[in-house]
Amino acid sequence: MTASVLLAGCDTDQVSLATNAKANQPVPPKLLAAMVEKDMDLQSPILVRLFKQEAELEVWKQARNGQFALLKTYPICRWSGDLGPKVREGDRQAPEGFYSINPSQMNPQSAYYLSFNTGYPNAFDKALGRTGSQLMVHGDCSSRGCYAMTDEQIAEIYSLGRESFFGGQKAFQLQAYPFKMTPVNMAKHRNNPNMPFWKMIKEGYDHFEVTRQEPKVDFCEKKYVFDAAKPADAKRDPVFDASAKCPAYVIPEDVVAAVRGKQAKDEAEYARLVAKGTPVARMNTGIDGGMNKIFAAKIPEGSTGLSEGAEGTTLQMLAMAKAPGTIPGHVNPPKPNLDSVASAPAPQEEPVVAVSAPATSARVATAAPAEKSGGFFSNLGRKMGMGSSDTTATTPPPQATASVAPATTTTTPPTAASRLKAAVTRFVPGHDKSKDATKEAAKDAPKPAATVAAKPAEPAKQPDTRLAATRPALKPSVADGASEATQIMGAAPVISSNSFDSRFGAMK
C-alpha cells in the first residue's frame, strides 16, 4: 500500500493509515514479555470473552501448541442495560452471544478514542427479528449499549487485534456472556427468563473450556450450533441458514465426550446448589448496567451496579489501588432508575423454581459482519477477501438527570412514593438508614404544611464529538512502557517502521 491509501473517519474525514498514531501504538513490553512466558507469538490468533456480571474482558491468544491460553484480563469500565441479550434498537442493552470481528470492523477514527464493532446483529439475532446497530467495544468509559473501556485499555486490546490480523487471522471471535457460566451463577439466575438462551450459549462456552479451541459457530432453526462438521458419507459441507431447518451434521466424538463430561459435573453441582437453597438473584432492579469495582472505587458515590465486587473486597479497600487507565470526569456510575422502581410493584420473594430449557447440542458459526462499509482495516479486509462493515462509533445523545419529587407520608397500602423511598434505601450509595429510623419515630408529630419544589434536573452534558485529530494523540499503555517491540521467536518478521503502510506493503 502507498501513502495515498486513505481511511474514512467517523465524520467522513480521510486520514492516512501511516499517520494514525493511535492505531499504530506498539504492543506494550509487559504484554510482549507475557507472550514469551506463555509460549505465544506476537501475531498469533486471539479470542475475546466478555462478562457483564464480573465486568471483565478477557483476551486469549493461541500458543505454539495450538491451544488458546489467557493472556490478560481487563476490567470493564462501563456497560449498560441489564443481564440478557440485546433485543431492539434503543433498549440500551449490550449484546450477548457469539460474534466475529474482521479487519473492516476496526475503527481508529472513533469518537471514543479507538473501537471495534461487535458485529451485532448476527444471523441468529436477525432470525429472531432483533434490531440495533453500532454496538462497540470502545474507550472513554461511556456506554449506551456498548462495552466501554478506558482509552489506555482499548489501545492495548486494539493493538493485539491488529497484530493478529497482520499474522493472517481473518477474524477473531468475540464471546459475550451475562456472567461466567459456572454452576453457582446458573443457580443464582435459575428463574431469569433469559435462562433458555443462556443455556444455549453455555454450550459454546463449554466447547471452548474443554478444547481451548475457537468453537466453529453456525445457526439453524433459530438456534446456535457449535463445531458442526459434515457426516462421513456426505460429499460436501452442510449449509446452514439461521431461519431454516438444520442440515445433516455431526460433532466430533472426542468433543462431544469432553463436553458431556463437563456438563454432567456442572449439572450435579447445580442440583446440589439448588437443593441447598442458593438464593435467587434479584431481577428488574431498574439499575442501568454495571462497572468493575476498581473503577467504582475511584468515583464519588460509585457503585458496581449489576456487576459484582470480589468477595471480601470493598470499594474502600480499592480506593488506593491504581486504576487501569484514565477515568474521564463525565463517567456516570450505575444507579437505580428511581422512576422505574417507584412505579413498579412492590418486590416479592422469588420462588425457587428452575427454568427448564430445550436441550440443544449446538455449536456456532462465523457471525455476519456489520453491513455498511468503512473502518480501520477496510483495505486489508478487501485484500483478504472479506466484506466491509460500518465501524463508526456514534456519540450517544445527552442523558437528562431525572427529577424526583419528595415522597409524602402515606398509609397502607404502600404507594409509588413509599416504594421510591424503599428503593433509595436499598440502592443509593451512602444512604444513612439510621436517619430513616429517626424520621419514622417522629412521623406522628404535627408538621406545618409546606410545598417543596422538586430539585431541577442538571443540565445535560453535550455529546463528545471530538475526533482523533482533536484528542490526545496517544495514551500511555496500561502495561506501562513504550519501548520498541522486540521480535518474538516464531513470529513473522517485523518491518522496522511501525506504520501501516510499510506493514501492509510487506504483506503484498
TrEMBL record:
InterPro entries: LD_TPept_cat_dom, Transpep_catalytic_dom
Organism: Bradyrhizobium ottawaense
Protein's recorded name: Murein L,D-transpeptidase YafK
Region annotation (Disordered) ranges: 364-481
PROSITE patterns: LD_TPASE
Residue ranges, compositional bias (Low complexity): 400-417, 447-460
Family of the protein in this entry: Belongs to the YkuD family.
Pathway assigned to this chain's UniProt record: Cell wall biogenesis; peptidoglycan biosynthesis
Catalytic residues in the record: 138 (proton donor/acceptor), 146 (nucleophile)
Keywords: Cell shape, Cell wall biogenesis/degradation, Peptidoglycan synthesis, Transferase
Biased composition (Basic and acidic residues): 429-446
